[in-house]
Amino acid sequence: MLKSRLFWKLFLAFALVNLLTAAALMSASLGWQREELVELSRRELTSVAVLIEAPAAEWVATRSEDAARRVRELAEQVGATVRVSGGGEELVAGPEPPRGAAEQNTVHAQRPLTDDGGRVVGRIDVTRPGETRAEALAALGERYTRYAAVLAGLVLLVGFGLVSHVVGPVQELDRAARAMAAGAYRQRAFVGNNDELGQLAQSFNRMSEDLGRQLDELRERDHRQATVLGGMIEGVIAIDGRRHVLFANAAAGKLFGFFPPQVEARPLLEAVRNHALHQAVTAAIESRTPQRLEIDWEERVMSVQVTPLVGDKTTGAIVVMHDTTELRRLENLRRDFVANVSHELKTPLSAIKANAETLLRGAVDDLENRGRFLQGIDVQADRLSVLIQDMLSLARIESAQQPFAIHAVPIAPAVQECLQDYEQQAEVKGVALAAAGPDGRPDVRVKADPEGLRIILNNLVDNAIKYTPAGGAVRVSWSETDGAAGGPPGVVRIQVADTGVGIPGEKIARVFERFYRVDEARSREMGGTGLGLSIVKHLAQSFGGSVSVDSRPKEGSRFVVTLPAA
Ligand code: ADP
Question: pTM value?
Answer without folding.
Answer: 0.56
